[in-house]
Design brief:
Elements lengths: L20 E3 L4 E6 L7 E2 L4 E5 L4 E4 L12 E3 L6 E2 L6 E6 L2 E4 L13 H8 L2 H5 L2 E4 L6
Parallel strand pairs: 9-10
Antiparallel strand pairs: 1-9, 2-8, 3-7, 4-5, 4-6, 6-8
Length: 140
C-alpha cells in the first residue's frame, strides 16, 4: 500500500514567537504598582513609570507630567498581571537588559499611540538606566 502525502500531515500547529526580552543580572526587581481605575489586566512588558511623588510604579502615560518617562517594564512572562482599583499590587519590574520594540504593548489604560510610545522608547534616558531597546529606527 502506498502512503499518500496528505496522510502524513496532521492538524496545523501555530507557534507563537517567544518575546525578545533579555534581563541583565539583577535586571528584574520587585516593585509596587499603585491602584489603577477599572483594575485592568496588564500584558507582559507594559511600559511603566516610577512616580516619585507616591514612590510607586504606574502605567506609562506621556500626557501626565509625573509619569511621562519610561523607567521600566512589567515583567510577568507567564500571564497578564492583574491590577487593583483601590489597593497596591506587588509586581516584578524589568529595569535593566535588552528588549525588542515589537514586544512592548501600547498601554490602553491611557489611550496611548504607537507613535508616542516609539518616541518615548527612543529617549536616551532609557540607555542611561541600562535598558536597551532593539528594533527602533532613527534612535536619538
Amino acid at each position: 500500500m502506498a502512503v499518500q502525502p496528505e496522510s502524513l500531515i496532521g492538524a496545523k500547529v501555530s507557534q507563537v514567537q517567544p518575546k525578545r526580552v533579555f534581563p541583565a543580572h539583577d535586571g528584574v526587581r520587585p516593585g509596587t504598582l499603585g491602584p489603577i481605575t477599572g483594575a485592568p489586566d496588564l500584558p507582559d512588558l507594559t511600559p511603566l513609570s516610577f512616580n516619585e511623588t507616591t514612590s510607586k510604579w504606574a502605567v506609562w502615560d506621556d500626557a501626565t507630567a509625573a509619569i511621562d518617562d519610561i523607567d521600566g517594564f512589567l515583567y510577568s512572562p507567564a500571564e497578564a498581571q492583574s491590577s487593583h482599583a483601590t489597593n497596591d499590587t506587588v509586581i516584578q519590574v524589568f529595569r535593566a537588559g535588552s528588549i525588542h520594540r515589537d514586544d512592548i504593548p501600547v498601554p490602553t489604560t491611557a489611550a496611548q499611540t504607537q507613535g508616542a510610545l516609539d518616541t518615548a522608547l527612543k529617549d536616551q534616558e532609557l540607555r542611561k538606566k541600562n535598558i536597551e531597546v532593539l528594533g527602533l529606527a532613527l534612535v536619538f
